[in-house]
Design brief:
By secondary structure, the chain is an all-alpha fold. It contains two helices and no strands. The longest helix is centred in the middle third of the chain and has 39 residues.
């Protein structure tokens, strides 16, 4: 059976769309985790170094 270019495009898009959705969800989750980690680091209290506390 011969598949013309329009059918091939539809078949390919049906395979690609779910994969793109999964990758975008994973990317958003990764960015969210990085943002939380960065916020945690920025909000943490600074710890004085031992040589600074001796002054």
């Amino acid at each position: 059976m011969f598949i013309d270019s329009d059918d091939n495009f539809v078949i390919t898009s049906l395979n690609v769309k779910p994969a793109m959705a999964i990758n975008m969800n994973n990317a958003l989750r990764t960015l969210e985790e990085r943002a939380k980690a960065t916020t945690t680091l920025l909000c943490a209290k600074p710890v004085a170094a031992s040589h600074e506390s001796a002054m």
